[in-house]
Every structure is written in structure tokens, then in C-alpha cells.
Amino acid sequence: MDHGSVDQAPEILLSRFDIEQRVGGLAAEITRDYHGRTPHLVGILKGAWVFMADLIRHIDIDVTVDFLGITSYGSSPHSSGEVKITKDLDSSIEGREVLIVEDILDTGRTLKFLEEVLSVHQPRSLRVVTLLDKRSRRIVPVQADYVGFEIADVFVVGYGLDFDQKYRQLPDVHVLRPVGSR
Ligand code: PRP
């Protein structure tokens, strides 16, 4: 699929203001649910780091953080189903209250893989927060504990999400449509 630039198709799906408000709401839920505990947030690179950076600044309890590098799409807008670790965790998660931080949940293959890989290390608990959920695209029956926005089956970029490694820096979430389409 030939995608145009965001300049050609600047449709904003979620504005920075919508995102900020919802991220604040998610952080409030997490603060309440983990009261008295110290969740260990594991951000899934690369897409989740912008969301995670905002999320932790709204969480009002102690947290620790780590990152896991995963790739599943390559430069294709559709998931190939192939999941690969590109950067391992820096510290043990045994006995920790692990909260996986994702930018988007799509087919569910990546999350299924993550849950399997991380459970082996015996965290005390394992939950998931995702900014976006394309529930209609699910192939593997997994779900997040905290969801920012459920979205339709459109290709989105910005706020950490890319197409061919571009557009991650955009402050809003945009729909990227194939050239020539409306
Ligand atoms: C995206 C996203 C998830 C995964 C979800 O990562 O961050 O990890 O795809 O897709 P799935 O539910 O179909 O498995 P991507 O491979 O695009 O890498 P990136 O985070 O580096 O952009």
C-alpha cells in the first residue's frame, strides 16, 4: 500500500488535548488500583515510549520503569505475525507488579507473545495498559486491563506510532490513508 505523507492527509483522529485528558484518566485509575504498591512499568519499544513518558508523569505513586524492544510489523502496515525481541529487560521482574505499556493493540499477537515471555519470569502480577485498541482486528483473544481509546480499523501514526519509522514525533494521532483515497 502506498501511503501519502501526513501533509497530504492531515486528518486528526485524536488531538493532543483528547490524548492528554485520557492519559490523565488512565493514570488516575492506575494510581488508585496500585495504591500502596510500586508497579513496574515495562514500555514496549518503540511505539510506547511517548505514551509512557506522559503516563508516568500523571501517576501519583512510586513506579519503576524498564523497556522491552519488540518488532512485529517491519515497514508493512499490516502485521506479519512475526514477533522478535530487539532489546531485553534490564532488571528482573520476579515478584514485581508488572504493567506492560503498549501504544496499540491490534491482532493481539504481540501481547500474547509478551504475556508468555514475561510470565515465565514469575511476576507477582501482570497487567496491560494500551493507549489504542483496534478490537475489530483481533486474531488472538487477548485484552488490555486499561484502554485509552478503542479505534476503528484505520492506519494511525503520531504520538509514538510510525509508518516506516516516520511520524512518531507528531503530537496528535493521525489517520494515514493510501494516496488518492478519501
Ligand atoms: C506495534 C505495537 C505493538 C504491536 C501490536 O509495534 O507497538 O507492539 O504493533 O500489533 P499486534 O497486536 O498485531 O501484534 P510495531 O511492530 O509497529 O513496532 P514499533 O512499536 O517499534 O512501532
How would you describe the overall organization of this protein?
With 182 residues, the protein is an alpha/beta fold. It is 21% helix and 27% strand. It contains 3 helices and 9 strands. The chain has helices at residues 16-33, 49-58, 109-119; strands spanning 12-14, 40-45, 64-71, 84-87, 97-105, 125-133, 146-150, 156-157, 173-175. The strands form 2 sheets. Strands 4-3-2-5-6-7 form a 6-stranded mixed beta sheet, sandwiched between helices. A 3-stranded antiparallel beta sheet has the order 1-9-8. Strand 5, helix 3 and strand 6 (125-133) form a beta-alpha-beta unit. Helix 1 packs across helix 2 (49-58). Bound molecules: 1-O-pyrophosphono-5-O-phosphono-alpha-D-ribofuranose. 1-O-pyrophosphono-5-O-phosphono-alpha-D-ribofuranose binds next to strand 2, strand 3, strand 5 and helix 3.
